[in-house]
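To: structure desk
From: M.T.
Subject: fold request, one chain
Message: Could you run this one when you get a chance? Sequence is below, nothing fancy, just the single chain.
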Amino acid sequence: MSFVYAQNRKISGFVYSNQSNNPIENVNIFIKNNNIGTTSAADGFFNLEGIPELDFELSFNIIGYQDTTISIISKEKEINIGRFFLNLNILDFDQINVAAHPELGNLQSLSNISLSGSAIQEKMKGTLAASLSNETGIAMTSMGQATARPILRGYGGDRFLLTDSGIELGDLSQTSGDHAVSMDMSSAQSVNIIRGAKALLYGSNTIAGVIDIKKNSIPELQFNRPHLHGVLGGATGDKSSFTNILYHYPFSDNQITIAGLVRNTADQLTPKGVLKNTASINNGFFAGIANYNESGRISASLESITMDYGIPGSPEGHISGVDIEMEKITQKLEYHRDIEFLPNIKTFDFEQRFVKYDHQEYESKKTFAAVDLGQQIFSLQGKLTGKDISIGSLLQYRKFIAGGFYWTPNTDEINLSLFGFREKEFNFVTFQISSRFEFLKVKPDRALSSININPERVVERDFYYGSYALGIFKNWQNWKISSNIMYLQRAPGIEDMFSDGPHLGSYSYEIGEPTLGLESTQGLEASLGYRKNRLSSTLTAYSNYSPNFHLSSKVGDGYVPGSDWIEWGSGSSGWLYKYQMKGLEARIYGIEFELNYKSDFVTIDASFSEVIGNNLSEGIPLPYIPPSKTRLRFTLNETSNFSPTLQIVNASKQSRLGEFEKPTDGYTLVDLYGSYNLKMKNGSHKIIFQIDNVFDEVHYNHLSKIKAIMPEMGRSVSIQYRFLF
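Reply: Done. Structure tokens follow.
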């Protein structure tokens, strides 16, 4: 390090919100031009040791608040600044930072969502989808609790990205409803939903946006002392228990990080009984090391997660259910450097990542894997970033492997992406423009066994495509308007083109279409925001049109054996509908409204969202579109370290049905959650409680693939204990 630590000097204090007068947790506090730092505890307290004997600048940074730097001019050995207050980004509405691209500053689009600290901790469930399902414009699809996956503005599958610090997770959760998302929410530090021009920094399949998850792994700054984080908890609704422990150990200019996760859940409890074969076991491990210097950092890490879960039995699938085992191993090398020799460019980031994913599906209680899927992904990404600019490229190789009775061919993919983003202000109007150009080579193995696809149609394919987005933003007085215009293209997936075989976990026999072309989408979004004093509100409308929308749909009318459906296991195990991929003309549009008011004692948060999807080719609604949803929250402003929230969620009846769908009744749920900060001498300690579905309401999720079997979870009480030493 460049600094000489002749004295063991210390600086301490408390970080508070200037608007709420409450302490702020997880603020990044560090000495400018030095990578030594710390984070604030639940009561806002921080203590930074080993500071230079010279005068220095102290910086404070956290999502939703203005970055602040103060000069410390003192020769004292121990400096106490008392309470230090941070300001919200109120006047310009810029409350959201991109976790993976902090140099780009604040996002402009009013429709983005950011959750960190207590905001995500108090809503945390076992899965990402369950944790986010009550946020504006977000729904959940599932085939049991372990398989829950988010739906954004009516879009699922591969039409939005799930990323880990900016790069795709590397699992197969986007390809089928029975594939679990390969992460546990107890590891999440922040979640950001990103839309508009900046979404193209992550990928082309981002018409609904990006969900970027930043986990408690290797920190951007070296801590001044060892840190031990932990969370322990459990819930009654699935009789679950979980533990996640994280340890940071700094030494010299280096820091070691080790983490471990265990989660066990039993079969889900509903007001009408137990939903059998939905238990799960999750195990995770993380180890990494980082070196910090004056100009940047370099790190290496290895992460493993395994999941063992069940899919309930169904007459329209597999009578006795399906058991699934999943394992993902991720190796990463990351390099970050601050640079000064390029105009407008401040940082250079490089990442190498290797992911090995394996997935087996078993007929319940049997040992033979009827479906065996896997993939290996090797990627290299480089990126140059400044305050209002970012350019980069991604080179990725993917090998897809299928076995068992799933006759999709083994396939190699090579993808090269070039992307760029620019922000510029003209006459008090801010413009954002981004583009992404991609080349994708798909090379399937033609030596395959296939029933419904002629092997002669399984050929190598090359895709060249580009995506573009323009954002326009204007502030005046207490108002802000934002708009985004997008033209996005995405290539069909391997499974979309070449699938042929029974997929037991998804209750389907899947048939691809080898001639599928590019899916293009023209999107328009407009938002109007108002903020004054204690009141803020946002109204957003959007419309997306696709002339070649890829949709997997049932074949025939479901009544012709062999043609429309097949028996599995000579009829003893059940039967499977045939689904075939096709392209059609479609439009998805909707509206979102949010309102927030904060008095001296209570904060009121309300939202409404509605999305409509139309199959224009056949003149019928698109299937699996969520019903309209209204949410109302009352949060008691923190008193004596206690902050409870009462939440009321209403989902309307869904009677706009796609082909083969059945209507779903509406429902109203009442939830209660909150946190209590324990006052103890050492470290930070917090108790978080949740009571979901307080009145044990019988309700059905329209997007659930198993709603004909059982309703959703009944009343569930959960407790979390979080600590930081």
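Reply (cont.): The chain has three helices and 43 strands. Let me know if you need anything else for the meeting.
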